[in-house]
Fold these 3 entries.
Entry 1:
Amino acid sequence: MNTFTSKVSINKPLNVVYDFLTDFNNHQKLMPDNIQEWTSTTDEARFSIQNMAKLALKISERIPGQLITIIPAEKPPFDLELKWSLSFDNDHTDVLFTIGAELSMMMKMLASGPLQKLADHETQSLLNLLS
């Protein structure tokens, strides 16, 4: 499994960050511009990546104040898992976003850059929205 991570610290209480991330309706605000046809509920989201693929994701696990795990709701082009790990330190919440993807050598060459950019974009968007 290939992993792509991005970390930020947000000057908000843990519960504010956790509550935002546990509602998939909020995740559209974290996505880059090439995400289209977004539809979501609290637990699931469906969208397309411009000129690429359609994805359906669902929140599979919520550990209050610690972790949100997201997995495909339908068969994706490759196995995928996203995790938001949270911890509170004094006056800020540390957020670690991890994308785990099972990529063939060819897919790794094509997708590694975009997946790392996605991880960085989502954490930066979260920081900008909640700061």
Entry 2:
Amino acid sequence: MGLFDFIKGIGKKNTAPAEPQAAPATPSEPSAQEIANKLLGHIKALGLPVAGLSVSYNGATDLAIIQGQVQTQADKEKIILAVGNIDHVAQVDDQMTVVTPEPESKFYTVKSGDNLSKIAKEVYGDANKYPKIFEANKPMLKDPDEIFPGQVLRIPA
């Protein structure tokens, strides 16, 4: 898929535990390695299936690089969004491979005043199709009413 842009500083705070090799936390800005370890922990905490997962982070450009192999395109997109919707990340470089390639979903950036019904009406022409968007964004979304402006969502065909 390539390089994806996100809005840095608007995403969720990453509260996932860092992987054990993380350096001690500093009271100010976390190091690039600390952020990479937290992103790795975040993906694992969501239970997203990926083999050979590797996450690196460049603090100068706020770029997260994800490598690994997934079974489906949906899993790949969920991992990209799980990382991209975190506050320190401005871009995600997707270097993952998919065992069974499928058509890519569209991505939608939530605007102020949006809800899943409004987005479903815009993209599918039917507000009642909001559960399709909600399901496509699990486990990142726990509740259909908890989306925020700037968040990027998967919109399946």
Entry 3:
Amino acid sequence: MGFTGLVNESHYNKQNLSQPYKFLVHSVIHAMCHRKGGYDVVVDYIMCMVTALFLNHPYNFSQVIFEHMKANVTRDKFL
């Protein structure tokens, strides 16, 4: 993927990727991330999603969605 930053960090900067993978990571961040802003830093579970998509490995996307839904139930912002 051409990542030029430090690999052993929990957050990855999107600017360290090559151009085609920046768009893939950007799309996955907007589709699967629960943040409202700050789309330049990629967390480790998003990078796992992108790696699974790129290498055509199985990945349980529904488990990630379910875990974030469970986290929202315990917060005060539950509707």
